[in-house]
């Protein structure tokens, strides 16, 4: 069964390096790397890396949009693009060699008109009618109302498709129900509930509130170096992170969503699907730019996590 991803705010992610970041002075950078970006596109690349069928839907505008389409095409991910009048955005990530710190500059997305938004939904409806999982990931661009993802959730429910959602801010706060699995970071979850979540019990309670109120059937909270927390009506489970050297953190959360979606689509129980997601995210941390992890590396990390869980 195929997976469809929707990216309402796609981007070209440009990555480069410099010896040291300084104000005013010209900084001579390394040759830039260009990657297709935006949450759903990154998810689709992670899904494809695991050998699962996927189609990426996204709006595209201007010369930057043409380049984005070419970059996605090179990855081998099938696409359905919606032409829009405003140019697709570009983001920049600069790694300082002296410290290893990464500076990420994120620009506003293309402003989408109401007819353009409708065409995005119509394309999703055509494709999602034959799939099992629909993944919506990333922020909403200018012009798109905060309730857009709720409209998408209602559409998915009508089609009998499970919606996996990864977003933040106003777009997350506007969701009222119909989500199968939601993956906020602990910071995004704290913002959603309106207060800090310092302790595991606080995080579980916040996630369970989303389940009890019908917002989402499952909530998987990414905790960064602390791992992840999966909560559903029947209980909660904590997952340890895998320690690795980080080359680039961009897209790791999307890789986690991609791995979990593939696991669920293959009939894995939730705990194993989350482990596959963690393995996918960890493998992505060792790649340049927003590239997904190598399939062999993902498989190796997945075996390690499942073996460690069995041994406990």
Q: What does this 3D model show about the protein?
A:
The protein has helices at residues 39-49, 62-75, 114-128, 148-159, 169-173, 186-193, 200-212, 252-265, 270-285, 295-311; strands spanning 3-6, 11-18, 33-37, 54-60, 79-83, 89-96, 102-105, 133-137, 162-166, 179-182, 216-222, 228-232, 235-239. The longest helix has 17 residues, at 295-311. Helix 1 packs across helix 8 (252-265), helix 8 (252-265) packs antiparallel against helix 9 and helix 9 crosses helix 10. The protein is α/β, with parallel strands linked by helices.
Produce a short descriptive summary.
With 312 residues, this protein is of the alpha/beta class. It has 10 helices and 13 strands.
Task: Map the helices and strands.
Layout lengths: L2 E4 L4 E8 L14 E5 L1 H11 L4 E7 L1 H14 L3 E5 L5 E8 L5 E4 L8 H15 L4 E5 L10 H12 L2 E5 L2 H5 L5 E4 L3 H8 L6 H13 L3 E7 L5 E5 L2 E5 L12 H14 L4 H16 L9 H17 L1
Parallel strand pairs: 1-4, 1-8, 2-6, 4-5, 8-9, 9-10, 10-11
Antiparallel strand pairs: 2-3, 6-7, 11-12, 12-13
Q: How much strand? A: 15-25%
Give the C-alpha Rg: 19 Å
Name the structural class.
Answer: alpha/beta
Q: How are the strands of the largest sheet arranged? A: 5-4-1-8-9-10-11-12-13
- How many helices? The count is 10
Would you list the SSEs in sequence order as H and E?
EEEHEHEEEHEHEHEHHEEEHHH
Instruction: Report the count of strand segments.
Output: 13
Mean pLDDT: 94
Q: Segments where pLDDT lies below 50 for 5+ residues? A: none
State the separation between the terminal residues, measured CA to CA: 34 Å
Give the fraction of residues assigned to helices: 40-55%
Mass-distribution shape: globular
For the sheet with most strands, the description reads: 9 strands, mixed
């Amino acid at each position: 069964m195929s997976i469809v991803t929707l990216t309402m705010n796609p981007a070209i992610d440009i990555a480069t390096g410099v010896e040291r970041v300084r104000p005013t002075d010209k900084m001579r950078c390394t040759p830039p790397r260009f990657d297709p970006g935006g949450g759903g596109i990154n998810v689709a690349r992670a899904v494809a890396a695991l050998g699962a069928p996927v189609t990426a839907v996204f709006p595209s505008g201007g010369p930057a949009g043409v380049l984005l389409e070419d970059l996605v095409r090179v990855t081998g991910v099938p696409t359905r693009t919606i032409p829009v009048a405003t140019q697709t955005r570009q983001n920049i990530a600069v790694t300082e060699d002296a410290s290893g710190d990464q500076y990420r500059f994120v620009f506003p997305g293309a402003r989408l008109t109401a007819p353009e938004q409708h065409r995005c939904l119509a394309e999703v409806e055509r494709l999602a009618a034959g799939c099992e999982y629909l993944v919506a990931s990333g922020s909403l661009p200018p012009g798109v109302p905060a309730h857009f993802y709720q409209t998408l959730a209602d559409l998915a429910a009508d089609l009998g498709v499970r919606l996996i959602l990864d977003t933040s801010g106003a777009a997350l706060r506007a969701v009222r129900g119909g989500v199968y699995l939601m993956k906020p970071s602990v910071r995004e979850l704290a913002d959603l509930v309106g207060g800090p979540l310092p302790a595991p019990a606080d995080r579980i309670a916040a996630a369970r509130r989303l389940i009890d109120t019908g917002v989402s059937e499952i909530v998987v909270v990414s905790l960064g170096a602390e791992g992840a927390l999966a909560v559903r009506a029947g209980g909660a489970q904590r997952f340890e992170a895998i320690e690795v050297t980080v080359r680039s953190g961009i897209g790791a959360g999307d890789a986690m969503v991609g791995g979990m979606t593939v696991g669920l689509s293959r009939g894995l129980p939730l705990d194993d699907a989350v482990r596959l997601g963690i393995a996918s995210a960890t493998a992505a941390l060792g790649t340049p730019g927003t590239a997904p992890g190598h399939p062999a590396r993902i498989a190796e990390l997945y075996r390690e996590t499942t073996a460690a869980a069995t041994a406990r």
